[in-house]
Amino acid sequence: MKKQNPKAIQDLFEKIALDHLFIQTLETQMSDRLDFHEVSVWGVKSALQAAFEAGRMAATQSPTHTNRA
């Protein structure tokens, strides 16, 4: 299995957080107001679906991908 680039993974996490949860950064800000967010359940579901789809796409694009039963 091909090892993923940590920067690319972090960028993907941040894009999902912004696009689906409206969270500007995943960096710790040392402030409750900035570090804790109230999000809708449909936002969480959407973010999880995006992450799942990204993983599925990465797995199918991997040159070493094989189907195992």
From TrEMBL:
What's a Pfam family in this record?
DUF6900
Question: At the top level of its lineage, which domain of life is listed?
Answer: Bacteria
InterPro entries with a match to the protein in the record: DUF6900 (IPR054195)
Residues forming the DUF6900 domain are: 10-59
* Identification of the protein by name: DUF6900 domain-containing protein
* Organism from which the protein derives: Laribacter hongkongensis
